[in-house]
Amino acid sequence: MxxxxxxxxxxxxxxxxxIHGRKDLPWRNTENIYHVYVSEVMLQQTQVKRVLEEYYFxxxxxxxxxxxxxxxxxxxxxxxxxxxxxYRRAKNLHESAKLCSDGLPQNLNSxxxxxxxxxxxASAICSFGYQQSVSVVDxxxxxxxxxxxGVENAKEAYLWELAxxxxxxxNPTFHNLALMDLGxxxxxxxxxxxxxxxxxxxxxxxxxxxxxxxxxxxxxxxxKLHFGICVRDGKIAMKRSNEGMYKDMLELPNIETSFYExxxxxxFAHSVTKYRLEVHVYSLDSTPEDVIWVAHxxxxxxxxxxxxxxxLKLYNGVKISAEGVQN
Length: 327
Ligand code: SF4
Fold this sequence. Notes:
This protein has 13 helices and 9 strands. It is an alpha+beta fold. Strands 2, 3, 4 and 7 form a 4-stranded antiparallel β-sheet that branches. A 3-stranded mixed β-sheet has the order 1-6-5, covered by helices on one side. A two-stranded antiparallel ribbon has the order 8-9. Bound molecules: iron/sulfur cluster. The site of iron/sulfur cluster has 14 residues, from helix 9.
């Protein structure tokens, strides 16, 4: 691409951002690097609207700084993350805060040594937080670049090279934000709105966008889970998960179903990451070993997953008797 074509495309992109960009998002209007970091971690795998309406401000109010986060128990962090899913993000955020309660490093390499920070998050922090001249590639930007440069089945490393070659070094932060918004609002996975795109003039993929970006159908794994609920003196038996996606969180004890078939309280379907779960919940008269008794009214503060919340809802319709839980 000639220099004049490059500058022309970059300028059109910035002009589009000026009018259409999501410039009022709070994490785009702060110099607080902690706020930028929290937003980037939350936005991995979660829609902007949900983060904005339900989590971002609430989390920052509870943990207003790296220091506050680092000195809070992990359970409280899980509690504020409850329902957002991908809880490892919360744990990594907490661990990173403990490692750098004086502030985050200011370069790509050091950032990537912190838990949960890969190349994307490190470059987003450098670009959006520190206004450094670095390119950023997330899924939206990758799609725009692959179509604009007409690259089929582009490897990730090549997309980063394209992003570097396209970076507007006179305004790298807004350039990256503009590409991100263009991918989210115009260059959509299905049916991109090319007639409204500032890059349409030079886009190699505009005539056949599907050729350069294939919408892959998600592959799910089906799983059955069995949990037991045991209540004593207003407290519920919970266990600390020591593996998998809910590692370190409190969950109901896993049980062998054959003993408890007759105590089935109900079942429900739950989707999380790549799993489609069929969850069966039973009442228990006795508990497995190593349980932690948690008062019902404090469970919400303990950081439980939305799957566990759904399971506990089944219990709400059940009476507690002196003998245990009964239908
Ligand atoms: S012209 Fe169409 S395919 Fe090309 S970047 Fe714009 S929206 Fe995407």
